[in-house]
UniProtKB/TrEMBL annotation:
Primary enzyme class: transferase
Localization: Golgi apparatus, Golgi stack membrane
EC number: 2.4.1.-
Pfam families (UniProt xref): Glyco_transf_10
Family: Belongs to the glycosyltransferase 10 family.
Biased composition (Polar residues): 40-50
Bias (Basic and acidic residues) ranges: 7-25
GO cellular component: Golgi cisterna membrane
Name of the featured protein: Fucosyltransferase
Pathway named in the protein's UniProt entry: Protein modification; protein glycosylation
Length: 497
């Protein structure tokens, strides 16, 4: 028997307490499976949640069959609905799983997964919307979208307007247009609809987010002008993904607390001996999937912008001084690749695919766990989030990168290279590619190469950089940075003064 959504469902009124649980230590709840019994032992996220009934165990064929059916109506739930009791934390509703970015702030919320048959309350705080059929067809999601579309626009100019800001403030981007046009809708008796934007180098160029209340983004440049954007630092999620993914920590992995202790230099690196003398037997590591001598194949196989060529050109240029080692067979995931760096390398090339402010991926964060000094190219505002004294920053002129991009414009694959060449066919030769890129980048990379050489020959200077904490702002690791952004965005659409 199916349970009607609005007739027999127990309504939950959670407290909207936005207190910060991470005052001194980093804590994250364990990952959740589908509850098998009516017991708090299997409750998702925290022990304040209990269930009225559940009939299917995790991974059962019955559950898989139900999930594969989809939904023909917006008014019914499955018969294995589970109703949570009231929580002292605001609710976060997810369809299948939490997005990677949300792990650092997860302990501020009570997590409800509708794929597990959990029935969220209508005053749930946030509903994450992945772009998949299951989520789009779920009756709770359909009703949440309907309620948002019917919600009144906020008056952003009158006496009763909410508190708004200009530009970036506490990790939230406030576009000027929200003050002059009606785009923000009142949050009442519905969850805020939120979507995560994808990688910076393949995303669409769309300029609207009219179907959600705010966007969560890993970069701070290419922004929508009709909703709020909350910034998060992608690399922070690395330790949380190692510890709280489906597989969890495995032997030799660094969890959240150990990662934070190393970043903040509360403990020495596990590879160090008591005298903090690391056995540096190798010069420099470069973890890369693609062969640095076959860049044409890399661009032919990926959606990378031309920015991605910088790290390969630096690898070649630095190797003119002393050979760097390409590491290509590192097992595990991108979040555990730091283990391949901690094999006696003094330096690690940890450069981004794209030069975009705010976009700081797991690469630099892995390098900071590699027991050597990271060498970084990427976000020019990286020093706003981590300690710039703890790594070598390669400062490539934005105008140079912009000009290089005009020779490899964004287009469906295969994308043409537009610089002059003698080769026939669609692609340049490897030599033509290197010659073209070297003409733009050699002089730009030379100061960075000189700095690495200086640290390599001067052990005192090397140790000074190595002793610098990678992270000095505890809010970044504890999740308070993006959570404050969520608070501000929610206060605005709730029309709080």
């Amino acid at each position: 028997m199916l349970i009607p959504l609005d007739k027999n469902s127990k309504k939950v009124e959670p407290s909207q307490d936005f207190s910060h649980p991470h005052d001194s230590a980093i804590k994250v709840p364990p990952t959740r499976g589908i509850a098998k019994e009516n017991t708090n032992e299997n409750a998702p996220h925290n022990s304040s949640i209990s269930y009225t009934t559940t009939e299917f165990s995790a991974g059962s064929q019955d559950l898989q069959d139900e999930q594969s059916k989809g939904y023909d109506s917006s008014t019914w739930y499955w018969e294995f609905i589970q109703t949570p009791t009231a929580s002292s934390k605001p609710y976060l509703v997810v369809c299948h799983r939490m997005e990677d970015w949300f792990y650092p702030v997860s302990d501020y919320f009570t997590i409800l997964r509708i794929a597990d048959g959990e029935l969220p309350p209508w005053n749930a705080t946030v509903l994450l919307l992945p772009d998949d059929k299951f989520c789009a067809e779920h009756p709770y999601v359909k009703e949440a979208i309907k309620r948002r579309n019917e919600a009144p626009f906020l008056d952003t100019q009158g006496d009763n307007s909410p508190k708004l800001y200009n530009g970036w403030n506490d990790g939230v981007f406030w576009p000027e247009s929200i003050k002059s046009t009606k785009v923000l809708r009142l949050l009442k008796d519905r969850p805020a609809l939120v979507r995560l934007r994808g990688e910076v180098f393949w995303r669409n160029k769309g300029h609207s987010c009219s179907d959600v209340d705010f966007i969560v983004d890993r970069q701070k440049e290419r922004l929508f002008d009709d909703c709020l954007t909350i910034h998060f630092v992608q690399g922070v999620s690395s330790a949380y993904l190692r510890e709280f993914s489906d597989t969890g920590l495995r032997k030799g992995d660094l969890g959240v607390q150990a990662t934070a202790d190393i970043y903040e230099k509360r403990i020495i690196h596990p590879k160090a001996n008591p005298n903090i003398t690391l056995p540096y037997v190798n010069f420099c590591s470069f973890l890369i999937r693609y062969d640095p001598n076959n860049l044409v194949k890399m661009f032919n196989s990926t959606n990378y912008d031309i920015d991605a060529i910088v790290r390969h050109m630096f690898f070649r240029q630095l190797s003119e001084y002393k050979p760097c080692t390409r590491v290509s067979n590192c097992g595990g995931t991108p979040y555990t690749s730091y283990k391949c760096m901690s094999e006696g390398y003094k330096f690690h090339i940890t450069m981004e695919n794209s030069l975009v402010d705010g976009y700081i991926s797991e690469k630099l964060f892995n390098g900071a766990l590699g027991s050597g000094i990271p060498i970084y190219f990427g976000a020019s505002d990286v020093g706003s989030y981590v300690n710039a004294k703890s790594f070598v920053y390669c400062n490539i002129s934005r105008s140079v990168v912009d000009e290089m991009r005009t020779f490899y414009p964004r287009a469906p694959k295969p994308r043409p290279f537009l610089f002059n060449r003698t080769s026939t066919g669609f692609w340049p030769t490897e030599e033509e590619m290197f010659t073209w890129a070297d003409g733009y980048l050699r002089s730009q990379l030379e100061p960075c190469v000189r700095r690495v050489i200086e640290l390599d020959v001067n052990d005192t200077a090397f140790r000074e950089v190595l002793s610098e904490p990678f992270v000095t702002n505890h809010d970044l690791l504890s999740g308070q940075y993006p959570f404050r952004g969520i608070e501000l965005a929610l206060d605005a659409i709730k029309n709080k003064k």
